[in-house]
Amino acid sequence: MKKGEIIKNKNIAKNLETMKMDILEKLDLHVTINGGLSTKELIKTIEFHKFTEDSLEFLFKQIQLAPCTYYGIGPFLFRDGGWHNIRERKLDVIKKLTEENMKLKKENLELKEILESREEFINNHCA
Asked: C-alpha 6: how far from its chain's center?
């Protein structure tokens, strides 16, 4: 290991040593919401910890290498010039299913109102 690598690794360790689980949870949500941002862009938008480019990329790699250790956090993939949370696809599915559920509930309510009005009409005019 070269001297520059040792210094870089010490700086990464120093940057990450005070992190607690709540920072990881916030990071997970932040990357999910802001998927596609580069490392530099993420650092500019993250207000809950002062990451360096090296420390953030190191953390993403560690989460990817040891997903059981960071269960529920990430993993994060770098594609198309930005970072993405793999779970964001699951969140998209949940959102679509929630929207569909709301639409079906609304249709069900409308049908229920139609049936009630027909029943009322029959009772008032045909009985």
From this structure: 33
